Amino acid sequence: MATTDFLVVGGGIIGIAIARELRRRHPDLSVTVLEKEPACGRHASGRNSGVLHAGFYYTADSLKARFTRDGNRALAAYCDAKGLPINRCGKLVVARTAADHPQMDELLRRGAANGVALESISEADAKRIEPRVKTCERAIWSPATATADPGAVLAAMRGDAEQEGIAFALADGFRRRRGDEVESARTTWRAGYVVNAAGLHADRIARQYGFSERYRILPFKGLYLYGDDAGGHFNTNIYPVPDLRNPFLGVHFTVTVDGHAKIGPTAIPAFWREQYAGLSGFDARDLAEIAALQCGLLFSAGFEFRRLAVEELRKYRRRHLVALAGELATDVRPEHWRRWGRAGIRAQLLDIRTRKLEMDFVIEGDDRSMHVLNAVSPGWTCSLPFASFVVDAIERQRS
Q1: What is the pTM (predicted TM-score) of this model?
Q2: Selection from 75, 105, 343 nearest residue 220 by Cα
Q3: What residues pair up with 222 in beta bridges, in sequence order?
Q4: Which of 243, 242, 63, 79 is CA-nearest to residue 146?
Q5: Which residues 6+ apart lie within 8 Å of 332 measured at CB?
Q6: What is the pLDDT of residues 73-90, one digit of tens each?
């Protein structure tokens, strides 16, 4: 039997940020992070794009808009304070045709409402920033968008957490709730309060506490294709105007923290929660549950799941992915884009009553536990202000 005042399940950036915020506010109470892997950040936190988004895709009344704007500033400041690499390369949002211009105007309105610096620029100005860019008449310039190294950030935050007195129980995943106790792979925990930040597995854990009744995690696999020295150099990130009805931003160019470029990501429906490659992480229970959800969505989803699934599956073909990227920039050749990166899996929340993907952050909890059900992209950018929001909710429930 082990005891702790706060037990945080999940050692990704969200879990660690919440643990640090709890410790900051309650220095006299013990905080433990329970992580099923032998190291932190083995899943979404170590496999994301590394983009520090600026916060203009989302309506100003959403949590995501506020947390992205504030998180961009907070995480950039953290990288500077810790001497971690950051590439302030900005981002161009480009129009493939004039039909994209109304959506560009909407992005500009959202950015202004959320206090995010954006510039509406001409095609000539866009080419001065990135000579290879393709755009129809105009573009949006986001100077606050940057890239950093997710692994380096997570390692620094874990180091800070340990110095602050937070304990880490690694290779010791949550198994089940047993009354007022938590049974993990190695230990039985008596915790004053449980915080579930388990990402891909958060909904299952939440249901053991009476939450997530209307929600299920639906995993989507993301892959990036890396360029060689001949084809992979860009000055800035280049994104298309997205379909704002869907949670994905479309195939784009990302400039990494070390100056290399990658194209992607895919958003391919996965059949189990940790389907990174081949049969890795295979879970028969996952397969049955997720396949049933996907079949239902093929015929009834309001966000056109069938069309989305078909489009995304086509991106498994390298030439098709390169062709989509070629709509955004010149001289994009398949022979220059051959190396696939590590897959990442987005833990996307689905409302099974409305059959819609949840677009914003979702938490549920009471005076004994709090459950982070949807910390969806750009969760890495949002992690610091989101952690404060979660702890505010915990304190309201405990009071």
Answers
A1: 0.95
A2: 343
A3: 344
A4: 79
A5: 231, 263, 322, 325, 326
A6: 999 999 999 999 999 999
